[in-house]
Design goal:
- Keywords: Plasmid.
- This is ACT domain protein.
- InterPro entries: ACT-like_dom_sf, DUF2241.
- This protein has a single domain, classed as VC0802-like.
- It contains four helices and seven strands, in the order αββββαβαββα.
- Helix 3 crosses helix 4.
- The longest helix is centred in the last third of the chain and has 13 residues.
- The two termini are 27 Å apart.
């Protein structure tokens, strides 16, 4: 099932949804198989180590260090992995409000991680973007 590629249609169709919970980005030196018990939402292997996106509570219980606390906003439109401009439009809108955006594109949806303290402002900005 292919997703939407047209940027205007993506922006008009997206219905940003703020997920419950708080998330953190961590880096560890071990293999992913050693961290399945912490149930990472996402992972990425970098030259410097393994990045994990975890629920904040799970990182704290497991003694895994982190720096910032984030909330997840899911763009509930099925965007194609070949769509051009969605990440740029979203990050530009959030940047105009002074909000950082850490974007993870999964198969069906894009997920934006924003500082927890700015989550409501980020959601409002994305709703504004989808209505224009």
């Amino acid at each position: 099932m292919s997703g939407i590629t047209d940027l205007d249609q993506l922006l008009l169709s997206m219905q940003p949804k703020l997920s419950d919970g708080e998330f953190v980005f961590c880096t560890v030196k071990d293999d992913l198989q050693n961290y399945t018990k912490v149930k990472p939402l996402a992972s990425f292997i970098e030259a410097e180590g393994l990045t994990l996106v975890l629920e904040k509570d799970m990182a704290e219980k497991s003694g895994i260090d982190f720096e910032g606390i984030y909330r997840q906003i899911t763009l509930t439109v099925h965007s194609s992995l070949e769509a051009v401009g969605l990440t740029a439009a979203v990050s530009t809108k959030l940047a105009s409000k002074g909000i950082s955006a850490n974007v993870i594109a999964a198969y069906y949806h894009d997920h934006i991680f924003v500082p927890a303290s700015k989550a409501n402002a980020a959601l409002a900005a994305l709703m504004e973007l989808s209505q224009n």
